[in-house]
Amino acid sequence: MALHVLASFPPCVVPCAARRCPSREATTPNRRRQAGRSGAHFVYCSSMSATDQIKSRMPVAQAQLAVSSSAPYTVAGGKEKVDELKLLGTWRGPFALRVALALNFKGLSYEYQEEDLANKSDLLLESNPVNKKVPVLIHNGVPICESLAILEYIDEVYAGRGPSLLPADPYQRARARFWAAYIDNKLVAPWWKMFAGKTDKERDEGRKQTLVAVEMLEEALKECSKEKPFFGGDDIGYLDVVMGGMVAWMQGTETLCGVKVLDAGKTPLLLAWMERFGGIDPAKVVLPDVARLVEFAKMKRAQKALI
């Protein structure tokens, strides 16, 4: 499928005061963020590529660990200062999960702040006064908003760290952006309608649109991966991270909505990709537990509250 479509996602940048540098502490791949906890969260960092990890079937307990420090930059006077990265998000939000995944795959340290969407922090409201939404990445005191814009920002600023998310080829890059927009508009939006629709008709419409979307994404994965493990080919790419934010939600869809969106018959490539992606150590420390996510979503749906 030839798709000559270029979607532009300019970042929303709003100046604010520089934040304090997070403390340095190591973590393990088995250690997960807890809802409601804020503070430093330092990512898994391995010298092995995602494909190498899969081939070696390396146990998590034996994975290489390191406290990864962000790349230094030079300030006036020739002194070096370490980058300060802070992510405002929620533990279950697919858009914030994308950013955390990108930071992990890039091997970057960052401070994480869990947001209560019913009682948003002053920092969030100051950092994203336009939409007042997560995620927001604050880099050396300057906020960048909207997940797709943040992913491109991370990839450009830290071009020498970890895998390149967007392809170097302009056409391949345009195609990746097209499918990223497709995921947001044709998968995430109707999935939400299927989950939280007010009427049976609305929920059924969301179900039909979601099933069409996953079949299209099955073809996109086949085309983009060229029979390799990921959308990005041999290693994690932009679409892997974008789609990765929905992994736990897709796994919980049958329980939440009574719909099996992925199966071995119609979407074997996506099903295998989801299991493969969810098994990579940098993703494991970010992706929420499915059972916990399902229970939380059921509670919020009953309360008709923000997720």
Q: Helices and strands, in N-to-C order?
A: EEHEEEHEHEEHHHHHHHHH
Summed over residues and divided by their number, the pLDDT gives a mean of: 82
Question: What general outline do the C-alpha atoms trace?
Answer: globular
Major β-sheet strand ordering: 1-8-7-5-6-2
Name the helicity range: 40-55%
- Poorly predicted tracts of residues: 1-38, 40-47, 54-78
CA(first)-CA(last) distance? 35 Å
The main sheet comes to: 6 strands, mixed
Radius of gyration: 19 Å
Structural class: alpha+beta
* Number of continuous helical runs: 12
- Strand content bin: 5-15%
Q: Give the strand tally.
A: 8
In short:
The chain is α+β, with helices and mostly antiparallel strands and 307 residues long. It has helices at residues 50-56, 94-106, 122-127, 147-157, 170-196, 200-225, 238-244, 247-251, 253-257, 268-278, 281-284, 290-303, and strands spanning 12-13, 39-41, 72-74, 80-82, 85-89, 110-114, 136-139, 142-145. Helix 2 packs across helix 7 (238-244), helix 5 (170-196) packs antiparallel against helix 6 and helix 5 (170-196) runs parallel beside helix 7 (238-244).
Topology of this protein?
Layout: E1 12-13, E2 39-41, H1 50-56, E3 72-74, E4 80-82, E5 85-89, H2 94-106, E6 110-114, H3 122-127, E7 136-139, E8 142-145, H4 147-157, H5 170-196, H6 200-225, H7 238-244, H8 247-251, H9 253-257, H10 268-278, H11 281-284, H12 290-303
Helix pairs in contact: 2-4, 2-7, 5-6, 5-7
